[in-house]
Amino acid sequence: MDTKITEVTRRDIIDSIFLEEIELYGRLEEIEFLSRIWDLESLESFDGRFNNAEQDIWQHTVNNNDWPIDWIFDDPRFNLIRGDDETFLRFLCETIHPVVRQDIHEAQKLCELYNKHLKNDGYQIIEKGQISKKPIFKGQFIGTSILPGIPLVQELFSGIDDEYISKQLERMEKAINHDPELAIGTAKESGETCCKSILEECNIQFTKKEKLTKLVKLTVKQLELTPEDIPDKAKASDTIKNLLSNLATITQGIAELRNHYGTGHGKSNSSKGLQPRHAKLAVGAASTLIVFLSETHKHRKT
To answer: Which InterPro entries does its entry note (predicted)?
Structure first.
């Protein structure tokens, strides 16, 4: 049983639903909604007077209405709190299905609420198609988006009062899974911003149209890459230059791939865009590059 979605996340989602006073079953009755996911007639009844779950639920939600509003989440027959991810995600997706929820904007708002919590466990609810020009959804595992380099980059720029840099980092981190192309472009821009900041401090001239690879080359030229007292200092410095150049080439190269494979550059709808794995490679390379250049620059100043 696959349970990457933790009980903490599930309860956070449930709490948010009721805190926002959202009608969970939309325009359907409970039995009508639940029958879209489970065969209620085949599930046991917890009330000895009835033969199955459907009769049981009708008695306590319609006839007597003596169950709490959130009874479904504590019912072991449905096991939404500790059960498999697929069932929990299907339950959430049904709550925003056009048959259940007519208002598109309300469905999208609810989807955003779900994704706010699901991203912590590497899941996301995405649009898989349409029915009567209204979106239908599915759950998808996308993995976690936090890469080791990003917190270091944020720390390095934490003392700089630059809203643009802050927004770049936030955009890059959030977009890895849901918008890989944006993350890739932002990774390249972040690397360029880092280099330009260092070059400006060093009073080095550069053109605004310089590619990242050229900016890295100019930046590296200004930095003392290796300690003075190591053997073959020049050779070690050349090795580091090559490594940094390769990181820049990876970031720049993946960014250029968007023009060939991206869906946003005049390609047909069937064209496949770059995936989160490509974004992670670009962001990882750019983050490593930024951390090294920034730390080297700070060390050089001191």
So the answer is: Abi-like_C, AbiJ-NTD3
Give the containing element (helix H, strand E) for 249.
Answer: helix 233-261
CA–CA gap between residue 188 and residue 174 (Å, rounded): 15
pLDDT of residue 3: 82
C-alpha span between 136 and 253 (Å, rounded):
35
pTM of the predicted structure, to 2 decimals:
0.55
One-letter identity of residue 32: E
Residue showing tokens 């980059």: 153
Residue ranges covered by each domain of the chain: 7-141, 149-301
For the chain, 302 residues long, the average pLDDT of each consecutive 10-residue run is: 85 93 93 97 94 96 93 96 95 97 93 91 89 92 60 55 60 76 86 89 88 91 68 75 87 80 42 75 85 83 74
Quote the DSSP letter at residue 139. E
DSSP type of residue 74: G
Closest among 81, 69, 82, 65 to 24, alpha carbons compared: 69
**Rounded Cα gap, residues 271 and 290, in angstroms:** 32
